[in-house]
Write a structure and sequence with these properties.
alpha+beta; Creatine Amidinohydrolase; four-stranded antiparallel beta sheet; 28% helix; globular; binds 2-amino-4-trifluoromethylsulfanyl-butyric acid; binds cobalt (II) ion
């Protein structure tokens, strides 16, 4: 069942989203060679708590940190720790927060210093695939119209889209119905309606779409160890253009 949010609820989700966006900005400003991923985790957690919000990931199914930091061939769910970033890495940062009981969820991939042209292209295509997808995030389209647009764009640029993890509805819980694959035929699934709130999150690989799980039980890697990037926003369906909720106020 897809939960339709009221205007009041959308205002709270917008606020949660603004806090997530602020935490992203604080982390991005700190990304440089030599910083550890656990320092980035602390920066995000402090920002979230200073804004009267709660990190959404900490303790979720036992996840041990406030954010996910996934470097290079790590696709998602990289656990912050003592590893230092180095020039030429790319790092995907995923952040979620609850404010007044409502959740915002957003991810982006950043270069560390100067990176290869291929890595820049991967990051740009991943971000643009989200924007291609939300061209169809409007009342009247069907959910898989978004999925199809994302996949078509990514594959047209020579990259592959991860199939084993998907986007999701979001609200008073981080994961609500529906599941939102980043691939598939158009014209299927529920019809989009105003008040639906969705976390759309393409994960894009340079090589094969296949992924493997590390022994830590969380970190997802590309099977061929090629680079991977992630881009996610929480959005609301309206009568008109979709609203991106995870932006700064
Ligand atoms: N954006 C991710 C998601 O939608 C982050 C979850 S990490 C977890 O599932 F640790 F909380 F699982
Ligand atoms: Co998500």
């Amino acid at each position: 069942m897809i939960i339709i949010k009221s205007e009041r609820e959308l205002k709270l989700m917008r606020k949660a989203g603004a806090i997530v966006a602020g935490a992203h900005e604080a982390v991005r400003r700190s990304i440089r060679p030599g910083i550890t991923t656990e320092e980035l985790d602390r920066i995000a957690e402090e920002y979230i708590r200073a804004h009267d919000a709660i990190p959404a990931f900490k303790g979720y199914n036992g996840y041990p940190a406030s954010i996910c930091t996934s470097i290079n061939e790590q696709v998602i769910h990289g656990i912050p720790g003592k590893r230092e970033l180095k020039e030429g890495d790319i790092i995907s940062i995923d952040i979620g927060a609850f404010y007044m009981g409502y959740c915002g969820d957003s991810a982006k991939t950043h270069p560390v210093g100067k990176v290869s042209p291929e890595a820049v292209e991967l990051i740009n295509v991943t971000k643009q695939s989200f924007y291609e997808g939300i061209k169809f995030a409007r009342a009247g389209y069907r959910l898989s119209d978004i999925s199809h647009a994302i996949q078509s764009y990514i594959e047209s640029r020579g990259f592959s889209v991860v199939k084993s993890f998907v986007g999701h509805g979001i609200g008073q819980r981080m994961h609500e119905d529906p599941q939102i694959p980043n691939f598939g035929a158009p014209g299927k699934g529920p019809r989009l309606r105003p008040g639906m709130t969705l976390a759309i999150e393409p994960m894009v690989n340079q090589g094969t779409d296949q992924v493997v799980l590390m022994p830590d039980g969380w970190t997802v890697l590309t099977a061929d160890r090629s680079l991977s990037a992630h881009y996610e926003h929480t959005i609301a369906i309206t009568e008109d253009e979709p609203v991106i909720l995870t932006l700064k106020e």
